[in-house]
Amino acid sequence: MKAETRTVKGIFHGERRFEVPVYQRPYVWNRERQWEALWHDIEATAIRLAEARIAGHGKGIDAAVADKLAAPHFLGALVIEDQPVMTGAVDTRLVVDGQQRLTTLQLLLRGVLDALDAVNAPKPLRAQVRKAIRNDEEVVGEDELLKLAPRHAERQQFAAAMDPVIPAPTASRFADARAYFRDDAAEFLADADVPADPYFDGDAVAARASLLVATLLGLVKLVVIDLEGVDDAQVIFEALNARNTPLSATDLVKNLLFMRAQAQQHDPQVLYDTLWKRFDDESDWWLELVGVGHAQRARQDWLLGDWLIAQRGMTINVGRLYGEFRTWLDTSGVEPFEALSTLNQYADAYEVLNGRREGASLPEQQAFLRIEQLNITVATPVILWLLVQPAARLEPDERERAILAIESFVMRRMAVKWQTRAYGPMFVEVLKAAQAAETNPGQAVVDALRAQPHGYSWPSDADIVTAFEEGRYYGNGGINRERLRMVLGAIDRRLQQQALKSEPSIVDYDGLQIEHVIPQNWRTHWPVTVQEPGERLIAEQERDRHVNRIGNLTLATKHLNPSMSNDPWAEKRAELQKHSVLQLNAALVAEPEWDEQRVRARGAWLAGHFGSIWRGPDDAIWEGATPIPKGVGDHGPA
């Protein structure tokens, strides 16, 4: 490795070409975060140069000596790697790191050249800038005229932005950058407050042009690291980016895999087009942040973590996702091409689960959606692994059975409010059981869930009934409202499906509110009728215990809920009969009275329907011989 400080002139003058590998991320620098700061630094450097020349001229010092007194602006590092070319061809370097600043410099120079042309600056000044962005057309071919060749997907836009014909700023991010720097340069050239260069013999505008060109070509410097054959480009890339604009774990993994694949003579363009292009074409989706709080990460990083867990068969430290991946790649013996291929398969499966492509049943997609809504992300590697198995090893019906078993396991544990702390290691063990299965890995998933020890067992129907009859489900000690809506909405949807004589209804359950039948402020509007003080106290305590049980909860629209919130049962019942289309409420209003006994009974009734949607561990469908009944997995909208 050779590292040296070079000026912009030293980097760009002469016939040469810098190529950005196809696998690097797109050009992302923008006005607010980078362009403005860069231009302000250049202006400040130009002023320093002018002041140094004024001071030098006053002391009778030669201009070249005076320029040494001006502090340069260091833009950062550029890592390049020599590329083999035919003898006599244009010297070509691969840009390992620094493509954002290199691209920005080219656009800046193009914008400055526009401003110089507009004021008819001296031809030698314009020629110096032009030589920094274009090779000599009499020496090179037309496709090698530009000094920089960005990623293949961006080359057409970049070439248009660098064309002598000025493009509209809205044409691309590249064109916008050129326009921004052109306007800034024009303002600089017209600024009478810029100190005059005493060494320049010409008008004020030409003097400022000379000052700007000298600054750009001679005082903007980069540390250029020129790699030799034995250097590990990825190690240098990681070190330089450790404290720079953050790269995602997926960015680092992509660079590592493509660098190693290229070293093994794989064509990076072919690999990119077949195994990675999707992540850039659909970058808005793959880069979308998923999760909450400190666990929020880009969707592509979630995919990478889930895939790596499936490859390693062990939990990983998500804070060191790239380090975990590199350790695995260095020790597993898996070739980069194989890793890219399997990661691509998992990306297919991830899109299938999210409904972006076909390949999963509606119950499977619904199950995955619910598991994600519960934030049980540690189950995703198991589900993805099941989806990528060939049909010869895992039939679709058995795969669906396994995924519905996972959904039932987590839904039932959520419903009885059992802890989730060790789900990560537990689901890794389930995954390993499936991977080790000689036949039917789907059944191995079911069996592993059924075999979980006390504390992580799969709740039985009796567990659900007890929880629904006696547990608190609203407020402190309950479950959050989104999960309550999920449970009550699923039960109503099942009732809708069973109500064959009723017109089908499409209900947006997410838009409904949780309604207490006996209101939370029951003492004013629903007082107990017991008069004896001791018995009255017991009755009030009993009512307090029942108010937030699931048997006392239902769903109502945001308009209906407040209008009847504290009404006595007769009036509330009439309002529900008149306005609600929910089968959940049709069963409720069949009750002529409402009290604690009916709350408990309705809890048991809800538990029965819950158990029909999410079957318990003792149900015959998990044995593999019984077909999965329609309605299990409840494949309507969440």
UniProtKB/TrEMBL annotation:
<keyword id="KW-0540">Nuclease</keyword>
<dbReference type="Pfam" id="PF07510">
    <property type="entry name" value="GmrSD_C"/>
</dbReference>
<feature type="domain" description="GmrSD restriction endonucleases N-terminal">
    <location>
        <begin position="9"/>
        <end position="258"/>
    </location>
</feature>
<dbReference type="Pfam" id="PF03235">
    <property type="entry name" value="GmrSD_N"/>
</dbReference>
<dbReference type="InterPro" id="IPR004919">
    <property type="entry name" value="GmrSD_N"/>
</dbReference>
<feature type="domain" description="GmrSD restriction endonucleases C-terminal">
    <location>
        <begin position="458"/>
        <end position="607"/>
    </location>
</feature>
<dbReference type="GO" id="GO:0004519">
    <property type="term" value="F:endonuclease activity"/>
</dbReference>
<dbReference type="InterPro" id="IPR011089">
    <property type="entry name" value="GmrSD_C"/>
</dbReference>
<keyword id="KW-0255">Endonuclease</keyword>
<keyword id="KW-0378">Hydrolase</keyword>
<protein>
    <submittedName>
        <fullName>DUF262 domain-containing HNH endonuclease family protein</fullName>
    </submittedName>
</protein>
